[in-house]
Design a protein that fits this description.
alpha+beta, 4-stranded mixed β-sheet, 2 helices, 4 strands, globular
Length: 82
């Protein structure tokens, strides 16, 4: 899976865009996926600016699948109020 496919899949299952950022800088209370010099990094940035659950990946598809799985699992337990 690449970034375009990831965004489509997240939109398709209704994951709120406020839950994550992908190569778009940082904001607190978000799941962040960023690429720098061929290394993909995932982490959750809490409301106090602390990085939690950091993981690094060498492959875009592995990083994208990780973020998708993480958000999909959260969505099952914490669906947004509509």
């Amino acid at each position: 899976m690449n970034l375009l496919e990831l965004r489509k899949k997240l939109d398709g299952i209704g994951i709120p865009k406020e839950w994550y950022l992908i190569n778009e800088g940082i904001k607190s209370d978000r799941h962040i996926l960023e690429e720098f010099h061929g290394i993909w990094k995932y982490y959750y940035l809490d409301e106090k600016g602390n990085q939690r659950n950091e993981c690094q990946f060498k492959m875009e598809d592995t990083a994208c699948q990780y973020l998708y799985d993480k958000l999909n699992e959260l969505f099952k337990y914490f669906p947004p109020n509509k």
